[in-house]
Specification:
Blueprint lengths: L3 E14 L2 E14 L3 E5 L6 H8 L7 E6 L2 E2 L5 H11 E4 L11 H10 L6 H17 L15 H13 L5 E5 L7 H18 L2 E6 L2 H4 L4 E6 L2 E7 L6 H18 L3
Parallel strand pairs: 3-8, 3-9, 6-7, 7-8
Antiparallel strand pairs: 1-2, 1-4, 4-5, 9-10
Bound molecules: adenosine-5'-triphosphate (ATP) and magnesium ion (MG).
Adenosine-5'-triphosphate binds next to strand 1, strand 2 and helix 1.
Length: 259
């Protein structure tokens, strides 16, 4: 039985702007299994970013319960939330959010720098890990470049490496392909899938591109703050589930995720 990594139980989120109250999420309940590659789909304004912010412990729900890695986020104080974010969750943004004055290597290494109290041996292992990640996203020859010297797709590759540097259980990506042409967007998605399969990291990415959501194991579709579709390709391990799994792996082997 797969482990649940994220659960929302009748979650509501209301934003108040002056006199106007916007209900961005209404009674949203869902479960996400560890190791899955999940998409939050839906049109503009449907609540995708809001849901990712709640899962990412950047914001708290107005009602209902958000559980991330077994912790109820509403019961955590700010320090505990920061700790959970730093160690368990990686973020990838639509606009890449790299630091312009740092080179690629330094950008990837940055989250590690927040953990200062480490010895020389650990430091050496970290350098190797950072190199390994940068190689894995295909930028070994760009380590000393600054973000401005890279293409959009390359910048997003850096952001993927940075999101993984803390070895998080969960990576959240808010429209990671929105600023890329479709071929580059597909290659970014394949890279995320590769990382999902290599490290078992759970990925949750939002998109409003129907071509991209096909890549996901689990599609959660929002409209006007409500779930209108919640479909997981490989269900529990009953016979039908096994077939689903077999189908999925054969799709992978026949090159849908090949280069
Ligand atoms: N900080 C805020 N204050 C007030 N209203 C907000 C705020 N953030 C989001 N909203 C509203 O909540 C609703 C959901 O917004 P959200 O950003 O989650 O949508 P989205 O699906 O990510 O859209 P997009 O595809 O355009 O990024 C929208 O109606 C939006 O106007
Ligand atoms: Mg959004």
């Amino acid at each position: 039985m797969a482990e649940t990594i994220v659960a929302l139980d009748r979650v509501g989120k209301a934003y108040r702007l002056d006199e106007v109250q916007v209900e961005a999420l209404k009674e949203v309940s869902l479960e996400i299994q560890a190791g899955d590659f999940v998409t939050i789909a839906g049109p503009s304004g449907s609540g995708k970013t809001t849901i990712l912010n709640l899962i990412g412990c950047v914001d708290k729900p107005s009602s209902g319960i958000v559980t991330v890695l077994g912790r109820r986020t509403s019961e955590l104080n700010d320090d505990e939330l920061t700790e959970l974010r730093h160690h368990a969750i990686g973020f990838i943004f639509q606009t890449f959010n790299l630091i312009p004055v740092l080179n690629i290597r330094e950008n990837v290494e940055l989250p590690l720098m927040l953990d200062t109290n480490i010895g020389e041996e650990e430091r050496r292992q970290r350098r190797e890990w950072v190199d390994f990640l940068i190689e894995n996203v295909g930028l070994a020859d760009r380590m000393r470049h600054r973000p401005a010297e890279l293409s959009g797709g390359q910048r997003q590759r850096v952001a993927i490496a940075r999101a993984l540097v803390m070895k998080p259980a969960l990576v959240l990506a808010d429209e990671p392909t929105a600023n890329l042409d479709s071929a580059t967007g597909e290659s970014i998605l394949r890279l995320m899938r590769h990382m999902n399969e290599t490290f078992g990291t759970t990925f949750i990415f939002s998109t409003h591109d129907p071509d991209i959501e096909h890549e996901a194991d689990h599609v959660i579709r929002l409209r006007d703050g409500r779930i209108v579709e919640n479909r997981r390709k490989s269900m529990v391990m009953d016979a039908a589930g096994m077939e689903g799994m077999a189908l999925q792996s054969s799709l992978r082997l026949t090159g849908r995720h090949g280069s």
